[in-house]
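Consider the tokenized backbone below.
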């Protein structure tokens, strides 16, 4: 697949998760309400200290790697923004710099 590919990850018993790798290396993932329910997520509870959030991010990263070739070997900043009936997850690689990982970014993974 092209390194900046948009993809749709098929899941058992549900439609799909939409993913797009941008030219700057970031990855956008759109989750709708059924996606979030299936993953046990609620926007209000999304925090990397939450087991359901960690599991969902790990699964999404695995799918992104397979679908788009997305890699983040030097760290990753994960931002989650609310959308009407879902959320947008923005994953930024090379966020290993501690300046990116402030307490205000609870989903930051290193």
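A designed sequence for it:
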């Amino acid at each position: 697949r092209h390194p900046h590919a948009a993809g749709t990850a098929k899941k058992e018993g549900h439609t799909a998760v939409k993913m797009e790798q941008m030219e700057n290396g970031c990855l956008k993932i759109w989750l709708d309400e059924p996606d979030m329910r299936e993953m046990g997520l609620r926007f209000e509870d999304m925090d990397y200290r939450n087991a359901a959030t960690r599991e969902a991010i790990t699964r999404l990263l695995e799918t992104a790697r397979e679908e788009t070739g997305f890699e983040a070997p030097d760290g990753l900043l994960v931002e989650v923004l609310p959308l009407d009936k879902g959320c947008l997850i923005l994953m930024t690689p090379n966020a290993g710099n501690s300046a990116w990982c402030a307490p205000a970014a609870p989903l930051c993974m290193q």
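The CA atoms of residues 44 and 82 lie 9 Å apart.
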